[in-house]
Write a structure and sequence with these properties.
seven-stranded mixed sheet; Archaeosine Trna-guanine Transglycosylase, Chain: A, domain 4; globular; Rossmann fold; five-stranded mixed sheet
Length: 398
């Protein structure tokens, strides 16, 4: 077994880790015994408490606020190629149990015991994102493990996330194995989609809202629908297929709208799906001034609160967008309101929508609540892994 340097924690700082958490903050480290500058970025370490008792194996980034992450708690199994293979196999077994088709998030970071690694599966193509220095050091081992477990046609590294900057990592996109096609194909909620391999957001698709998108379809038959922040049609195309009379899709990305149009044609609903290009707030105000009305409106915005310091500004943005939506709803309308901002608690989003409703003298009935799908399992000790909120409201006159 390799002889690793030890990362010593201060007194009582091991309690949270023994409770299940995987992160170690720089102020929890005993810097007399473990001066952080002595560690290399991404270096593997043995984490011990103030008495020198073993806690687990992890990796270090001395330049980051989260200066270390645990990967293994088993003394006999330090971080290795075989451990990566094992963790990926365990993650795969859950997804294969849940999904008939091979389109899902295969690895969800800490929740799958691989902090700093996200892998989405598009059939025979895997798209991975590495967000920490410790995982970047293991890049070739990760690719080899994915190749061994799944033998995909291609493995793409979409390492262009802004999170990498916090770890001091470069931004790049690379095809690590095989030859990647220009377009990826997926199936979800009875619909088929083609998404660009290298040009989409994040890994190219958002699998996390799969269940929420399916539930929204229960409310769309014979309804006029507005899908705000529509991207490539994850909400709108199943809605059209489920019987909506018209689905208007609003997005500021013309490329996304063009691909949405192709996806609508692919699913035989192009006659009921149309696109609006522009800023959501601006276009919705124009629709309001023109007297447009919809029976159901979907709001699935990007994170308005990317950092904790943005909370107040972000909550106001959520209030405004939901209030605009309610002004565009018919008298007995349905509002689907979602947020992917971890820093926005579920009850705060619910209260924010209620505040907008009361400002307009409307009443709400909360019909359903949703969260991220089971291919994004929540780590019970790490609140940050539980980020997605979705509500289905009935909006009525007071």
């Amino acid at each position: 077994m390799q002889n690793l340097a030890q990362l010593h924690l201060k007194k009582n700082e091991g309690r949270r880790l023994r409770g299940g958490h995987l992160w170690i903050f720089s102020n929890e480290v005993d810097k007399q015994k473990s001066p952080l500058p002595r560690f290399e970025t991404g270096q593997q370490v043995e984490v011990v408490d103030e008495k020198g008792k073993f806690i687990g194996y992890g990796y270090v980034n001395p330049h980051s606020l989260i200066c270390a992450r645990l990967v293994s708690r088993d003394r006999q199994h330090p971080i290795s190629a075989s451990l990566l293979v094992h963790r990926i196999k365990v993650a795969l077994s859950l997804r294969q149990r849940l999904f008939r088709l091979p389109y899902y998030r295969l690895v969800y970071g800490e929740s799958d015991g691989l902090p700093g690694l996200v892998v989405d599966r598009f059939g025979d193509v895997l798209v991975a994102q590495i967000t920490t220095a410790g995982m970047e050091v293991m890049r070739e081992a990760i690719v080899a493990a994915l190749d061994k477990v799944l033998k995909p046609q291609a493995i793409i590294l979409r390492n262009d996330s802004a999170i990498r900057q916090l770890e001091g990592l470069d931004s790049y996109v690379d095809t690590a194995r095989g030859q990647a096609p220009e377009m990826l194909t997926i199936e979800e909620n009875g619909a088929r989609y083609r998404v660009p391999t290298f040009g989409g957001q994040k890994t190219g698709w958002f699998f996390d809202h799969r269940l929420n998108r399916g539930r929204a379809c229960q409310y769309v038959e014979q309804k006029r629908v507005l899908d705000v922040f529509s991207y490539m049609g994850g909400w709108s195309i199943p809605a059209a297929m489920a019987g909506a009379t018209e689905v208007v899709c609003l997005d500021q990305s013309m490329k996304a709208l063009e691909q949405l149009g192709e996806n609508a044609e692919l699913n035989g609903v192009v006659d009921r799906v149309s696109g609006l290009h522009g800023d959501a707030f601006d276009v919705m105000k124009v629709l309001r001034e023109e007297g447009e009305k919809f029976d159901l409106i979907i709001l699935d915005p990007p994170a308005f609160i990317p950092r904790k310091k943005d909370v107040a500004k972000g909550i106001e943005a959520y209030r405004q967008i939901n209030q605009l939506a309610m002004q565009l709803l018919n008298r007995d309308g349905i509002l689907v309101s979602a947020s992917c901002s971890y820093h926005l608690q579920r009850e705060v989003l619910q209260g924010t929508v209620l505040k907008g409703a009361r400002h307009l003298d409307r009443s709400l009935q909360l019909l359903e609540q949703g969260h991220q799908g089971p291919d994004h399992p929540v780590h019970p000790a790490i609140a940050e892994t539980d980020y997605l909120k979705s509500f289905i409201f009935r909006v009525l006159p007071s």
